[in-house]
């Protein structure tokens, strides 16, 4: 739209002397602002090297006059959070376990803290959604079936001491014998059919009837006459729909023959009492708590 | 290309001082009115009170960042309803397209804050230092006591205006009277002081010193606008065919040889951008139309018809050069393009208004917990968990009864609790885990994935809302000798 372009007196600037296909390269000076910014970055870099950790050494780096380190920063942050939560942590440690869910503020804190503890320490075996690992023997914590009890107290004891570990004398303990050495394969198949019968699955009625005798003689002492289980021994309920290792013939045969020995570590040496209580509250409210 | 010893020309152009002269006329009057209205709105709106009842702000227009609410008179917008703001921005965009295609850079010339505040600053400048000639003299004058006094007075008044500008901004974000008291008592939040300081500085610098440099170099809008103008858009233009050759009319016979332009420089002297409109349409022109006022005044005095400089579209130029009359203004404004913009603008506006009236005061969402997708209970029932979110957008606590639509086979329960009633506090969102359980062997339990609708009905009220979600079951696998806890590695066991 401009009708009168104003011609600027353009003088030929200096070139570098490089020519490619007749195209020459200007040798313009760097823009002043650019040069100043560049010098400023150099000055900044020198200041930074003096103030902050910079030069790598064999076992670390120069500390810098400010003594800054990201590790110290994180430690400070954690200490800050702990100090801010000191009241709640103290309350959590001293409160009556079963009463915590009634205290709204404390319960919310425990559930949130417990979720963090769970993700860090428990999810490796029990899964991030707490659904356990089917056939791996890692129990699902969401359902209403508990091996050692599902009250907050029970869960707290389990987390504190663990199960069948060697590091904690108070760990919950029981051991299923490997019946492969005591029963014939036929008897094992019969017992497995009986277990499928009481858990409402398809089975061979004739084998199951014989299996009932085998079961009564060998299994009922721990798993109960009707397969209702025994929490004092951590003996799983066999007449329900939930399986720790699997309820199919193959898995049942394997379980009876070789037995199972699920281990959970003791956490009382690794976690604070407040953390153990928090994770117990968290697990309890996941849907299966008693 | 030959090299020479002379250094290349500098790419930097120093700012030329501009001393706009005072002007009177219809566009100047219009601009004074627009300035009064826009500045009035900006400075005064935060002080309008609006009673919303207890525990709620009584400020008519408030962006409550702390509580994440936007209040606009009777309208209250939650962050989830941000689409209203998006809609308003779309309307603002379409509005600019509409005005630009019809009236050119009318936003720049009349309503842009940079223009309005610069205008105000120039007004102050004129009050203190005098009109153009006095200001030019003062510019060249040496820095004596007189000059220092005038300059310091001017800067002080500018600073006060800038401070008021920055100050008004923060009042939109928290209760204005409280904040005003806190600010004076130096007990307000540092962010408030920081914001005021920043806006004070930008207003002072942009309005007092940077001025037209902002429009020419900093603002992206002129470039976008330039792309939206067409040959029917009205711009401020000089009727060169009527004015040229320009010259001072010294004798009667000059009137025959010279054009109407008497080269009095009035149009140049009043221009806040420091350009000569007679050079034609140019990038720096913000179409503030002050040159029209200046030229009309001169034409009146020399007894020539007005309109040597006037609002003119590119298409008119061709017509007028050919001796034909220009298209009437209305025809420039009512074109398919502008009508389309108007229609779109109105459609978005109507959409927003409708959305505003039909939106409920209860918002419900339900998301299935997918880790795991379902849990098998000891009696073989299949249970799904959901995160229920209920937003109560009223100012009273309300209770809601939860039900599953048309499906007796699904049992709804709330965190092991027998009741199916949830209470949502006033103005809050409730997050609640709920469970749906399907009996062992039921269709739901045996269907891998089925849809389900949950209703929340206010107890003792008429408000209700629903949310659709899915129920994940598990085909009864008795025949395959398998039973799972739904932890995701089903395939392995099939």
Task: Explain what you see.
The complex is a heterodimer of chains A (290) and B (494). With 290 residues, chain A is mainly α. Chain A is built from ten helices and four strands, in the order E-E-H-E-E-H-H-H-H-H-H-H-H-H. In chain A, a hairpin with a 2-residue loop joins strand 1 (15-20) and strand 2. The termini of chain A are far apart. Residues 1-9 of chain A have low confidence and may be disordered. Chain B has 494 residues and is an alpha+beta fold. Chain B has three domains: 26-83 and 101-214, no CATH class; 234-327, no CATH class; 362-493, Sandwich (Immunoglobulin-like). The longest helix of chain B has 27 residues, at 145-171. Chain B is elongated. The relative contact order of chain B is 0.09. Chains A and B meet through loops of A and strand 7 of B.
If you average the pLDDT of chain A, what whole number results? 90
Most extensive chain interface and residues per partner: A-B, 44 and 44 residues
Number of helices of chain B: 18
- Regarding quaternary structure, what we see is heterodimer
Largest sheet descriptor of chain B? 5 strands, antiparallel
Content of β-strand of chain B:
15-25%
- The total strand number of chain A stands at 4
Compute the number of strand runs of chain B.
14
What is the CATH class name of the domain at 88-168 and 266-290 in chain A? Mainly Alpha
Compute the average pLDDT of chain B.
87
Q: What's the structural domain tally of chain B?
A: 3
Q: What portion of residues of chain A is helical?
A: 40-55%
Give the radius of gyration of chain B: 34 Å
CATH topology of the domain at 88-168 and 266-290 in chain A, what is it called?
Answer: Cytochrome Bc1 Complex, Chain D, domain 2
- Give the H and E element order of chain A: EEHEEHHHHHHHHH
Q: Quote the distance from N terminus to C terminus of chain B.
A: 81 Å
Shape of chain B: elongated
Write a brief structural summary.
By secondary structure, chain A is mostly helical.
